[in-house]
Amino acid sequence: MRLIIGATILAALGTIAIAQGVDPAMLLRPPVDSWPTYHGDYSGKRHSRLTQITPSNVNRLAEAWIFQTGQNPQIKATPILTDGILYITTPDNLWAVDARTGRQLWHYTSPMNDAFHIGHRGAAVYKDFVYLTTPDAHLIALDAKEGTVRWNVVVADSKKGYWSTNAPLVIRNHVIVGVSGDFDNLPGQLKSIDAETGKTQWTFYSTPPVGVPEPQSGGATGGQMWMTGTYDPELNLIYVGTGNPTPVLNGSVRTGDNPWTCSIVALQADTGKLVWGFQASPHDTHDWDAAEVPVLVDGMFNGAQRKMLMQASRNGYFFVLDRTNGKNLLTAPFAAVNWAKGIDKEGRPIPDPDKEPARDGRLVAPGESGATNYRSPSFDAATGFFIVSAQDSYGIYFFKPEHGAYGWAGADYGIAGRSFLRALDYQTGKIKWSHELGEGQSTAGVLTTDSGIAFTGDVSGNAIAVQTSDGATLWHAAIGRMGNSPITYQLDGRQFVLFGGGSSLYAFALP
Amino acid sequence: MYRSLCVFVPLCLCVYGLVVAAQQSPAAQRPPQTVTPQSYRPELVLTGQTRFASECGFCHGRDAAGGETGPDLTRSTLVAEDSRGDKIRQVVRTGRVDKGMPSFDMEDADLEAIVAFIHDQKTKAESLGGGRRSVDVSDLESGNVDAGRRYFNGAGGCSNCHSASGDLADIGSRFRGLPLLERMLYPRSIRPETAPPKVTVTTSSGETITGSLVSRDEFTITVEDSARSMRTWAALDVKFTIHDGMNAHFEQLGKYTDEDMHNVYAYLQTLRQ
């Protein structure tokens, strides 16, 4: 067991009532005064039904409050909101903040550790528990009122090279936790942990665990599930994107498609059993995780009502699947791509062997940082637009035998990128509008609302609001570079929109 | 894996290193040698290893030999020229934010230990030669000089802006190996920085200002004028033209075949004075 550093109550809880917290029924239809999961709800649409802030009044948005962590790391997490309290994280840190005022209620710091402190996606809540993953791949359950530790369990062995940045997904009493780790040849694993006791309920391996022969993977390891998945309660299926295979750039030692790396997998929520998988990048050699949000949409496709899953994948392709069975409905590029020879009968891009990393270098689009990345897209049902922060980018990829077959096993260099907010028509994959975000990579996600606004951030550190229907700019505020995806909620009749800028959290509302 | 810290260009601690290394014989392929030999207590190196892994390892590799996005520090000239942190400290404290490296607000003791670890790793790398994630000059010899010249003067359109006897007359001396390739593909991707684009701004009152671009986003434009004063306008309030050579380079990235790329590189390699 690790030493526990208790939380500090820096301010009295005052009049803020803490109700019963999040329960399974509430998670099925979160009220507008909450944002109880990473995506806001199970669908991953990052869309709110709030309408107080409209295209005609958004230009009057003003800062309601700013919460400063007082620390160096950029906020890359989505805040979680329940019972008027926001939970915001950076590696090793979780702050409880009054959602009305931005005042800190308590701050928990996990014990120092030597694992990667690269980023953190956010907390999770269930009843009166708050959950935090740590860089050394622990899951810590805190008391939501006081920030004291209830239990602390190891999810994966950080000494082997695992770490965690994951915002867990809570489904009934399952806390679904993913880990990272592709500097070492490690099997990809996702765990379900009992929300109350911390006991492991099941583990899903995207590549075979050590000692388990499974020829289908072709010898690949990796396929880490470091992003928060989505969930269909009717089908009782969890959808998660898996990361790249390892060794990363050396594909010669892992033949075949290397399932289930760079894939979307559907897992039975109570057992973790694989129901189906779809590979976005068969035999990836470019670090293109398919970890991006699998967005769940019910609607028409080619004249038939469908339960769909949509993903704008890091490899530059937008996929629409039938989420009941994983069958592909649409594959279309949404950014510059030059690595595929075509699309196979299953809807998967066919990798061009000539674009695999080579001794003299290969110029590849997208570059390693991808056509998009962990930043969330948003789906707006009124327009049928899937809105994604995209990047046209190029990189050069090298591999020679001297690079070996462990971990990265190659070298790659980003060359250039230009970012755009793009609206995709999900039925055709066509780009309906493209809003320039600047040179380089935007790291901001997207939020849409029922009033027809899409919020995001640009490369230069502006939070921006555009009209969902045509991408026209409505509002902006220079808050510093955004590393997270915005959220919105309404408290006491007032709608707030939150952005992380640098290491501060900015709340905007109408005056 | 994700690339959380970074913008779109490689972090650049190593760029100077590669420029210098490139001036050596290609056969040598050795990292730049430490200018001021220095040694550190093993306990300090061990502490530094832990702190380095936690704060720097994702981008620069746990062994400092290059990670997800950051360069191999054991082949960095800045590290080679550093003496007990006199150069490394500043880069860590201020970052290279424009290139994707954040600043780190780190305790002196931690920084001292990290410096010790980097130098210790560099010493080990020097004894090994080469680099685990290296790209050597000899790796980039697959192109055809004549075909590169033809592409430069023809289909590539390079000669619309550049001249083999003018601005690029000594490009093959100034850069070799990977830095030359990167410079060729997108000059802004590596240091030293390219000259900022020239801008012409016309204000609503009819005043015309020419100068160098300092920054530009959707909402504002900032220019250093001919008197070296910084001037900023709301983008909607003025008319402006930015002459940015990078636009043609960016478009070209979508047109090159790998063969074209290697051929033009081979040709540029021959441009020396």
Strand order of the largest sheet of chain A: 1-7-6-5-4
Per DSSP, the total helix count of chain B is 11
> What is the average of the pLDDT values of chain A?
94
- Provide the number of structural domains of chain B: 3
What CATH calls the topology of the largest domain in chain B is Cytochrome Bc1 Complex, Chain D, domain 2
Uncertain parts of chain B? 1-29
Average of per-residue pLDDT values of chain B:
85
Largest sheet of chain A: 5 strands, antiparallel
Q: What is the 3D form of chain A? A: globular
Structural class of chain A: mainly beta
Label the structural class of chain B: alpha+beta
Q: What helical percentage do the residues of chain A reach?
A: under 10%
Kindly state the percentage of residues in helix of chain B: 25-40%
List the helices and strands of chain B in order.
HHHHHHHHHEEEEEHH
Taking all Cα atoms into account, the compactness measure Rg of chain A is: 21 Å
Shape of chain B: flat
Percent strand of chain A equals 35-45%
- As laid out across the biggest beta sheet of chain B, the strand order is 4-3-2-1-5
- Give the radius of gyration of chain B: 21 Å
Low-confidence stretches of chain A: 1-19
Q: How are the SSEs placed, and which strands pair?
A:
The complex is a heterodimer of chains A (511) and B (273).
Chain A: E1 8-9, H1 24-28, E2 47-48, E3 62-68, E4 80-82, E5 85-90, E6 93-98, E7 104-109, E8 124-126, E9 129-133, E10 138-143, E11 149-154, E12 169-171, E13 174-178, E14 189-194, E15 200-205, E16 221-222, E17 230-232, E18 237-241, E19 245-246, E20 263-268, E21 274-279, E22 295-301, E23 304-312, E24 317-322, E25 327-333, E26 340-343, E27 349-351, E28 362-364, E29 378-380, E30 385-398, E31 411-425, E32 431-439, E33 447-449, E34 453-457, E35 462-467, E36 473-478, E37 487-491, E38 494-501, E39 504-509
Parallel strand pairs in A: 2-33
Antiparallel strand pairs in A: 1-7, 3-39, 4-5, 5-6, 6-7, 8-9, 9-10, 10-11, 12-13, 13-14, 14-15, 16-19, 17-18, 18-20, 20-21, 22-23, 23-24, 24-25, 26-27, 28-30, 29-30, 30-31, 31-32, 33-34, 34-35, 35-36, 37-38, 38-39
Chain B: H1 15-22, H2 42-55, H3 57-60, H4 77-81, H5 88-94, H6 108-128, H7 145-153, H8 171-174, H9 178-185, E1 198-202, E2 208-216, E3 220-225, E4 230-234, E5 239-243, H10 246-253, H11 258-269
Antiparallel strand pairs in B: 1-2, 1-5, 2-3, 3-4
Helix pairs in contact in B: 2-6, 7-11, 9-11
